[in-house]
C-alpha cells in the first residue's frame, strides 16, 4: 500500500484528520480538488466572512459610535475593494498555514479529484496532466458541502448569488434581498447593511436563526432592526426569484397567502448547504447516501465499507467546522486503537453578527418538547458595567437548568463576544456543572462573563445581584 491513511478533502475536518493521523504515526496523504488547501471554511466560508464582518464592524463603529467616544473624524467612506483585498490576504495567510502544517507533519498533498476505483484504490484526476492511482489501507471522506438552491431560485452568480459570490462583490448593493434568515444570511446581510446597503431578509419560518433558542432570535431581530435597519419578512414563502438584468424580483407569499413582491439589485440565496459527494465514485464501493445526500455511517463514523469513514458536512449532524474537526480527530484516534468520544449535544453554534449569538446544549423549545422540568435564569447586558463601557448593551445571557438537580442543560448568549464566551459554557456542561457551581466561581470585574455568573445566580433561587 502507498499509504496507511488517505483523506479526501482538505477542509477543517480533512486537514485536522490528516494531522492527527500523522501524529499517531500513520503514513498519510490528503487529496484536494483545488489548488489551495482549507476547503470551503478557509476559502469561501468561515474565514473570509469573518474578515468582512470585522472590517464592516469597524466601519459601522466609525460611522455611528466614534463621535460618542470622543473621536472626531471626517465622514468615513466604505472601500469595498480594499475590504475584499484584505479578506483575500487573510484567506491566503490561513491557507498557507495549512500548507505549512502538512509539510511539518510529513503529509503528502495530492491535488485533483479523488474517486474510488475500489475500497483500497483511489484515482486522482488533476485539472491538468494525467490521472494517477494510489493505494491505501484506510480512507476518510471529508469533502464538505456546497450552497443549496431551489428550482425557483437558481443561483446564476450574477444577481442571484450564493455566499461565495457575496464575498466577492464589486459594488455595495443598493438593496440586497437575503433569502433565508439563518446563520449565513444574517452574517452576510449584516456585512452589507453596515456599509450602506438596504437589506431585506425573507424567511420561511416565523423567526430568524430558527435552530437556536427563540429568545436569542428575538434579541438578534431587535438589535438588527435598531442598529442596521434590516427589514425582516418572516413567515414568507418565496415562490420565484427572477433576474431581469439590472434588478432581481423576488415574489413571496405571506402567512395569509397574499403575494408580496420585493425588488433589489442582488438576491443572496442562503437557504443552507448540501453535502458535496459528486465525483467520488461512491457507487464503485457500494456506499449509499440518504434522502438528503449524506453518507450513511455508524456511531464510529464508519461507512458500509469497513475501511472507509466519513466526517463533517457529508454526514448527519450540524454543518460546522469545529464539529468536523472533532470527528476527524475521533476517526484518526480510532485507527490507533483509542476510544475517543464526542458529545454532539455540546457542539456550540455561533452567529457572528454584532451582537454575536452563541448557544450550546438544549434550547428552551427542545426542553418543552421533551417534557423536561427546567428553570430559567437570564441577565441583560445593559445591566453590565463592562457592556456599558464599550456601548455593547444589546442582548442577554440565558441559562437553562434542571429544576431538581440544578445541572446546566443549555447556555444561550446574544451579546458582545458571545462566540468566545460560549467556550466557558461548553466547559461547564462537559463537567456537568450546576448553575450554582458557576454562580459561586469568581468572575473578573468588569467583564462580559459576569453576565453568565449573574444568569446562573438568577437560575438559582433568583439570586442575581445587579438587576
TrEMBL record:
<feature type="binding site">
    <location>
        <position position="203"/>
    </location>
    <ligand>
        <name>NAD(+)</name>
    </ligand>
</feature>
<feature type="binding site">
    <location>
        <position position="313"/>
    </location>
    <ligand>
        <name>FAD</name>
    </ligand>
</feature>
<protein>
    <recommendedName>
        <fullName>Dihydrolipoyl dehydrogenase</fullName>
        <ecNumber>1.8.1.4</ecNumber>
    </recommendedName>
</protein>
<dbReference type="InterPro" id="IPR012999">
    <property type="entry name" value="Pyr_OxRdtase_I_AS"/>
</dbReference>
<keyword id="KW-0285">Flavoprotein</keyword>
<feature type="binding site">
    <location>
        <position position="114"/>
    </location>
    <ligand>
        <name>FAD</name>
    </ligand>
</feature>
<feature type="active site" description="Proton acceptor">
    <location>
        <position position="445"/>
    </location>
</feature>
<keyword id="KW-1015">Disulfide bond</keyword>
<dbReference type="InterPro" id="IPR004099">
    <property type="entry name" value="Pyr_nucl-diS_OxRdtase_dimer"/>
</dbReference>
<feature type="domain" description="Pyridine nucleotide-disulphide oxidoreductase dimerisation">
    <location>
        <begin position="347"/>
        <end position="455"/>
    </location>
</feature>
<keyword id="KW-0274">FAD</keyword>
<dbReference type="InterPro" id="IPR050151">
    <property type="entry name" value="Class-I_Pyr_Nuc-Dis_Oxidored"/>
</dbReference>
<feature type="binding site">
    <location>
        <begin position="319"/>
        <end position="322"/>
    </location>
    <ligand>
        <name>FAD</name>
    </ligand>
</feature>
<feature type="domain" description="FAD/NAD(P)-binding">
    <location>
        <begin position="3"/>
        <end position="328"/>
    </location>
</feature>
<dbReference type="GO" id="GO:0006103">
    <property type="term" value="P:2-oxoglutarate metabolic process"/>
</dbReference>
<keyword id="KW-0547">Nucleotide-binding</keyword>
<dbReference type="InterPro" id="IPR016156">
    <property type="entry name" value="FAD/NAD-linked_Rdtase_dimer_sf"/>
</dbReference>
<dbReference type="GO" id="GO:0005737">
    <property type="term" value="C:cytoplasm"/>
</dbReference>
<dbReference type="Pfam" id="PF07992">
    <property type="entry name" value="Pyr_redox_2"/>
</dbReference>
<dbReference type="InterPro" id="IPR006258">
    <property type="entry name" value="Lipoamide_DH"/>
</dbReference>
<feature type="disulfide bond" description="Redox-active">
    <location>
        <begin position="41"/>
        <end position="46"/>
    </location>
</feature>
<dbReference type="InterPro" id="IPR036188">
    <property type="entry name" value="FAD/NAD-bd_sf"/>
</dbReference>
<feature type="binding site">
    <location>
        <begin position="143"/>
        <end position="145"/>
    </location>
    <ligand>
        <name>FAD</name>
    </ligand>
</feature>
<dbReference type="InterPro" id="IPR023753">
    <property type="entry name" value="FAD/NAD-binding_dom"/>
</dbReference>
<keyword id="KW-0676">Redox-active center</keyword>
<keyword id="KW-0520">NAD</keyword>
<comment type="similarity">
    <text>Belongs to the class-I pyridine nucleotide-disulfide oxidoreductase family.</text>
</comment>
<dbReference type="InterPro" id="IPR001100">
    <property type="entry name" value="Pyr_nuc-diS_OxRdtase"/>
</dbReference>
<feature type="binding site">
    <location>
        <position position="50"/>
    </location>
    <ligand>
        <name>FAD</name>
    </ligand>
</feature>
<dbReference type="GO" id="GO:0004148">
    <property type="term" value="F:dihydrolipoyl dehydrogenase (NADH) activity"/>
</dbReference>
<dbReference type="GO" id="GO:0050660">
    <property type="term" value="F:flavin adenine dinucleotide binding"/>
</dbReference>
<keyword id="KW-0560">Oxidoreductase</keyword>
<dbReference type="Pfam" id="PF02852">
    <property type="entry name" value="Pyr_redox_dim"/>
</dbReference>
<feature type="binding site">
    <location>
        <begin position="180"/>
        <end position="187"/>
    </location>
    <ligand>
        <name>NAD(+)</name>
    </ligand>
</feature>
<feature type="binding site">
    <location>
        <position position="272"/>
    </location>
    <ligand>
        <name>NAD(+)</name>
    </ligand>
</feature>
